[in-house]
Write a structure and sequence with these properties.
This protein is mainly beta. The protein has one helix and five strands; from the N terminus they run βββββα. A five-stranded mixed β-barrel has the order 1-2-5-3-4. β1 and β2 form a beta hairpin.
């Protein structure tokens, strides 16, 4: 699934592909792999699959990630 996600301190918005094929709901906190490394992100909406990706969504944020 393709998603628009806001990542990082400055809130960069990009198109991210879910590696586990989960359709994350709006507002879900996720772990993303970007060109800067692993970052926390928040799903803004689902998008249409296209060739240009800014990174991948690895999984949803767990309680241990928040700690």
């Amino acid at each position: 699934m393709d998603h628009f996600v806001r990542v990082g301190i400055l809130g960069h918005v990009g198109r991210f592909l879910s590696t586990d094929h989960v359709a994350y709901p709006r507002g879900a906190n996720v772990i993303c792999r970007t060109n800067r490394g692993l970052e926390l992100g928040q799903v803004l909406s689902q998008g249409k699959a296209t060739s240009g990706q800014d990174g991948t969504i690895l999984r949803g944020v767990t309680v241990q990630d928040d700690l």
